[in-house]
From TrEMBL, chain A:
GO cellular component: endoplasmic reticulum; Golgi apparatus; TRAPP complex
UniProt name for this protein: Trafficking protein particle complex subunit
Organism superkingdom: Eukaryota
Species of origin: Liquidambar formosana
Cellular compartment(s): Endoplasmic reticulum; Golgi apparatus, cis-Golgi network
Family: Belongs to the TRAPP small subunits family. BET3 subfamily.
TrEMBL record, chain B:
Protein name in UniProt: Trafficking protein particle complex subunit 6B
Family: Belongs to the TRAPP small subunits family. BET3 subfamily.
GO biological process annotation, one example: endoplasmic reticulum to Golgi vesicle-mediated transport
CDD domains: TRAPPC6A_Trs33
InterPro entries per the UniProt record, alphabetical: NO_sig/Golgi_transp_ligand-bd (IPR024096), TRAPP_component (IPR007194), TRAPPC6/Trs33 (IPR037992)
Any one GO CC term of the record: trans-Golgi network
UniProt cross-references to SUPFAM superfamilies, sorted A to Z: Ligand-binding domain in the NO signalling and Golgi transport
Lineage, highest ranks first: Eukaryota, Viridiplantae, Streptophyta, Embryophyta, Tracheophyta
From TrEMBL, chain C:
Subunit structure of this chain's protein: Part of the multisubunit transport protein particle (TRAPP) complex.
Pfam family, one: Sedlin_N
PANTHER family: TRAFFICKING PROTEIN PARTICLE COMPLEX SUBUNIT 2 (PTHR12403)
GO BP, sorted A to Z: endoplasmic reticulum to Golgi vesicle-mediated transport
Protein name per the record: Trafficking protein particle complex subunit
Homology family: Belongs to the TRAPP small subunits family. Sedlin subfamily.
Organism, as annotated: Liquidambar formosana
Length: 247, 176, 143
């Protein structure tokens, strides 16, 4: 039994973000659902579900859910001491430097780890922020900067340096808990210490159908006055779902 | 109140770290993966103990240091204390957390939703894999405890026991 | 005026030592720091004369010489901080305040993932912070 093909269901499907762990399956727009079955088709898993209620149906009795501000979400999420996060990340980077030896390999590994985190975090991001599906890259970038950074790292990024056709911009961070206490030694000058962040952004954007390239422009650990990540939109696939229909 | 980040940040990072070492670098050498994960925890514990003992008198014996781990140190990390501390008075301490936060948020318990996934055997296999992953994951907090105690002048070995989930016991054996 | 500060590891290995004098007396100051380590060990092992509180990190005046006063501090992780000053009239509260801030700077320095525990502290940030703390020593506004 595959997912139903009527237009309404298909449209709804677009609002679901599916993670690797079926129990983490979440609705992006406040839909309640029940999983009926999960089937394996080739390398893809098909989730069959019933929508129990959606925002549309309950609109009459409740005011529409407005997107929440980053501050409001951060105030409500479970939080931990940043020190634990900062020191754990630092210990991982140092262990990777020992195990992988080449700084370039460590950069790649951090980016890959970030990517894996990004494709999972997008889930929590959509569920907690009440952000409706962003229509264009510009809007998406704004939401990531104002809500995304805040709700996870507790800091706000600004979006600058838009190019003329609106496909490239920069996230600028003046405060970044990853680098509290960190001073790069001379032997690690090629290291992009925060490279996990570029991976997270790339992974999260890919889950909302935006293929991007993320590169560091400024790095406070290298003496710059801020962190600046340039995000270039390579390809946008508006209705691509994270699994394939093979009929 | 110090700086904070969302708990998801720490959890994602730990999950990804464990997965990198177990599935990518040392997929066929779990004991090497375990050693690396423990080493990362040790480093974190070593540095954290430096921070969290600031502005407090020095501990006069091992028990005082262990109690510090159970109360203040654990509270800084998990916003709760260790629930039960036992000792045989010969250098072994058992620190039990009735609901260890890093496990209670992980999906290791079998759930009815998963039963539709496929045959029983592969579910059992998946559970077995999940248990292995959990054991790998636990090398990290074990390392944290060992790192913290060793920086306080107490060399020891630390292991974890999860036979009573969601409770988790950390067994600290002090080296003579 | 503070003329020298030092951080010494639990095996009496020097982790950081910095003098703040124009004169060429670094060697003499290093010698004073070195001698103070024995006093610290003695204080800690024979706590009966250790001052008001048992096991307090602040060890107080270790010994006065003709020209200097030497103060000590021992962290829970068995790291020693030594302070050498030429001031004759030193307030206890100022010295405690100094060590409190110095300890915080030390903890941040060893939290740098690239600092290897037990190795010398080479951080520039730490050196700058220490210099600021040293300059503000004894000023009533110091927080």
């Amino acid at each position: 039994m595959g997912p139903e093909r009527n237009p309404k269901t298909t449209r709804l499907l677009g609002l679901f973000w599916i993670t690797r762990n079926p129990r983490l399956l979440r609705a992006g727009l406040g839909h309640n659902y029940a999983i009926q079955s999960i089937e394996q088709r080739g390398s893809s898993q098909i989730f069959n579900f019933t929508v129990l209620s959606s925002r549309k149906q309950i609109k009459g009795s409740m005011p529409p859910v407005a997107p929440r501000s980053g501050d409001a979400i951060f105030a409500n999420v479970e939080r931990v001491n940043a020190e634990l996060f900062t020191l754990t990340y630092g210990a991982i980077v140092r262990q990777l430097l020992t195990d992988l030896e080449e700084v370039e390999e460590v950069n790649k590994q951090l980016d890959q780890m970030g990517y894996n985190i990004g494709i999972r975090l997008v889930d929590e991001f959509l569920a907690k922020s009440n952000v409706s599906r962003c229509v264009d890259f510009k809007e998406t970038a704004d939401v990531i900067a104002k809500v995304g950074f805040k709700m996870f790292l507790g800091v706000t990024a600004s979006v600058t340096n838009w190019d003329a056709d609106g496909t490239s911009c920069s996230f600028v961070l003046e405060d970044n808990p990853l680098v509290d206490f960190v001073e790069l030694p001379d032997t690690c000058q090629g290291l992009y210490y925060c490279n996990i962040l570029s991976g997270v952004i790339r992974g999260a954007l890919e889950m909302v159908s935006m293929k991007t390239e993320v590169t560091w422009v400024r790095d406070m650990l290298r003496g710059d006055d801020a962190f600046e990540l340039q995000v270039k939109l390579l390809k946008q696939v508006p209705e691509e779902y994270p699994y394939k229909d093979d009929e | 109140m110090g700086r904070e980040v969302s708990e998801s940040c720490v959890e994602s990072l730990l999950t990804e770290m464990v997965s990198s070492y177990c599935n990518q670098f040392y997929a066929n050498k779990p004991e090497l993966a375990a050693r690396r994960i423990e080493a990362i925890g040790y480093d974190v514990g070593h540095r954290l103990s430096e921070r969290y003992t600031m502005e407090r008198p020095r501990f006069s014996d091992h028990l005082e240091a262990i109690k510090f781990i159970c109360k203040d140190f654990w509270s800084e990390l998990f916003k709760k204390q260790i629930d039960n501390l036992k000792t045989n008075h010969r250098g072994t301490f058992v620190l039990q957390d009735n609901r260890f936060r890093w496990l209670s948020r992980m999906s290791i318990d079998p759930s009815p939703e998963n039963t539709g996934l496929s045959q029983d055997s592969s579910v059992a296999l998946a559970e077995n894999k999940a248990t292995q992953a959990t054991n790998m994951y636990l090398y990290f907090p074990c390392g944290i405890i060992r790192g913290a105690l060793s920086n306080l002048g107490i060399p020891c070995a630390v292991s974890a026991d999860i036979s009573n989930l969601p409770a988790c016991s950390f067994v600290v054996r002090i080296k003579a | 005026m503070i003329v020298c500060v030092a951080v010494v590891g639990h095996q009496n290995n020097p982790l950081y030592i910095q003098s703040f004098t124009e004169a060429d007396d670094a060697l003499k100051l290093h010698h004073i720091v070195h001698c103070s380590l024995d006093v610290v060990d003695e204080r800690v092992n024979n706590p009966k004369k250790a001052g008001p509180t048992l096991n307090e990190t602040f060890l107080g005046l270790l010994y006065p010489t003709e020209n200097y006063k030497v103060y000590g501090y021992l962290t829970n992780t068995k790291v020693k901080f030594i302070l050498v000053t030429t001031d004759l009239d030193v307030r206890d509260a100022d010295v405690r305040n100094f060590f409190r801030r110095f300890h915080a700077a030390y903890v941040d320095a060893v939290s740098n993932p690239f600092h290897v525990p037990g190795k010398k502290i080479t951080s520039r940030t730490f050196a700058e912070r220490v210099s600021t703390i040293v300059k503000s020593f004894g000023l009533s506004s110091a927080g």
